[in-house]
């Protein structure tokens, strides 16, 4: 929630503190999660986050850090995630071929494929964001919201929608990835828990609380498509945990395993 938002009389000002706590929880847990994912990826000589999802997340952080984010705390968080994600990108490019021995052409071109996906996501997210915050004709303007001095523009909804789509992509593709690998390569219980708690606090609970206290400005939270997406990512993450409990605890690299 932006500091520039003007709360209506019926909204308790404590919404800002609750928002800070929930977003802060999500930010801290995801920061630790990204560090552990990078470390685990390098240890296991693989990539922890699915390539398409990594490109989406990295592009999201780039666009929001350099273009959308207005407040220093937001810019700092997105920039920090962007820098930490360089470790995930490094592991994906360096060790990605290990997961594509069945498709050598893909393995040899992992870096180029990732670069192409990253460029596409950056363009797509910039296009959506610039359309959303157009000062002349903003998308779904709301009373009490403001952005860069223009009343009505709601970057909270923009953040929610793009983050929710990214979350669904991450959760579903991560579930598919671990089912294909049939091992814990690139993952751990701690990584899963941090990711799940971070998404639950920073996305689902945070925006859910804002909707509960200030429904006029957060009605998008309960639209059918968003409810479906929220249920989807939660079920996919819970499914991931079930599979993680069942697959072998493999700590060797893919290369070591093949010897």
From TrEMBL:
Membrane topology category: Multi-pass membrane protein
Domain of life according to the entry: Eukaryota
UniProt keyword list: Membrane, Transmembrane, Transmembrane helix
Pfam families in alphabetical order: Pyr4-TMTC
Transmembrane segments: 20-37, 49-69, 75-93, 113-133, 158-180, 192-214, 220-243
Subcellular location: Membrane
Keyword Translocase: no
Record's GO cellular component terms: membrane
One MF annotation (Gene Ontology) recorded for this entry: lyase activity
Main location: membrane
Family recorded in the similarity comment: Belongs to the paxB family.
Protein's name according to its UniProt entry: Terpene cyclase
Naturally occurring in which organism (per UniProt): Alternaria tenuissima
Lineage per the UniProt record: Eukaryota, Fungi, Dikarya, Ascomycota, Pezizomycotina
